[in-house]
Amino acid sequence: MNDEMFCYQCSQTVKGEGCTQMGVCGKNETLARLQDNLLFALKGIAAYNYQMEEFGESDEEINKFITKGLYSTLTNVNFDVQSFIDLAIEAGNINIKAMAGLKKAHIDNYGEPEPAVVEKGASQGHAILVTGHDLKVLEELLKQTEGKGINIYTHSEMLIAHGYPELRKYEHLKGQLGGPWFDQVALFSKYNIPILVTTNCGLIPKDAYADRIYTSGIAQLPNTPHIDDYDFTDIINKALELPELEEEEKTTYTTGFGASTVLSLADKIKELVLAGKIRQFFVMGGCDLPNPSMSYYTEFAKQLPEDTVILSVGCGKYRFNDLDLGDIEGIPRHIDLGQCNDAIVGAEILTALTELFDMGLNDLPVTFVLSWMEQKAVSILWSLLALGIQNIHIGPVLPAWVDETILSVLVENFNLKLISTPEEDIKEILG
Fold first, then answer.
1. What pLDDT, on a 0 to 100 scale, did the predictor assign at position 1?
2. Which of 21, 120, 309, 430 is the most exposed place for a label (fewest CB within 10 A)?
């Protein structure tokens, strides 16, 4: 990891090119990295805030903090290292509010998620594939394609849509194609159907599908038609012009465990924990990325003892959600809570568990093992830290901006732990 800073945001930088050791303004490397950290957290908050506002909801406190946080990173405004740690914690709390607001909007509009077995693979018929996180876009597309003989498939983080009753009621919401965001080049090339990209996780289109990919909302790609105001006429016509998909053999994913579903099992969970039949819960997932070291999560899930349960959020689940982990007397050993913003559901469950077992958050038999790639993950990490959660295991690859300076802040203040190998980490956690 690089231990130097780099800042080029004003005209007084060294040689007019950038400060790499210490800012001419006086800020040191630690302060520079903490400012970067806050900026990334603010981007994550903005993502959830934007999606919440799509449903007509607005929160003055969130908007004011985004302004305050951005202003704090300007040249010659704030030189206090502790202020930026405090601001990061505040960002974590604000992000909790943003995720909670978005989740409420989803539930108010689509009902609370319920467990759903989702077919993975194509059925006979015309089709459109929707990727990203934006459930509002998916809903509008489902309305406009009803009765037109077009099947709608989800990709990547859109999987959770199948758990919402008011989305699942559409019979042409057919299933899932593919898994994590980065399989899109091969996947979009394989299926000769239109693709609709929402929110983030889009890649520059390849020639094989560049003439049948569309964007909507915040997402935009070069030389790609952008759909405004939820008018999906063009992509619908494209779907009807292209050949039908052929039926193929299918597997399944299970998703859609809302807080109410999990907490309805609270008494059973308590009984199994007290009887020693559930030893530990693991919150796993976060970001996925096309790096061989991410096989850590597959091996970790495989090697966990049968008296453990996984709660997953984010696309990191695609490293293990095709494994049949079975159940413990009716409690599934893998409980998929949904998208990265559904980390708020995990927080609600943990809070309920503290009351159920009458113990502090860090005394619960719960361990976080998370991958971390992009800006939304930064805001979620600070949300977990703001809740007071210690000993989070993180890796295997840290973002490039995390140097020894910022890492030491996280380790010293919050006991953050870098993962090693599945064998060593499981042994260290379970004893």
1. 52
2. 21
CA-closest candidate to residue 40, choices 378, 395, 362:
378
Q: Residue 323 is which amino acid?
A: L
Asked if residues 312 and 337 have their Cβ atoms less than 8 Å apart, the reply is yes
Residues 6 or more apart whose CB falls under 8 angstroms from that of 291 comprise: 396, 397
Q: Give pLDDT < 50 ranges for the chain.
A: none
Q: Measured between alpha carbons, how far is residue 362 from residues 25, 54, 58, 346, 351 in Å?
A: 40, 36, 33, 14, 11
**Which pLDDT value is given to residue 2?**
54
DSSP 124-157: SBEEEEEESS-HHHHHHHHHHHTTTTEEEEEEGG
Which DSSP state fits 212?
G
Q: Phi then psi for 391, rounded to 5 degrees?
A: 60, 35
Other beta carbons less than 10 A from residue 228's beta carbon: 7
Q: Read off the pTM.
A: 0.95
> What is the distance between the alpha carbons of residues 267 and 217, in angstroms, rounded to a whole number?
42
Residue 23's pLDDT is 92
C-alpha distance from residue 115 to each of 257, 258, 402 (Å): 5, 8, 37
Q: Are 99 and 341 in contact (CB under 8 A)?
A: yes
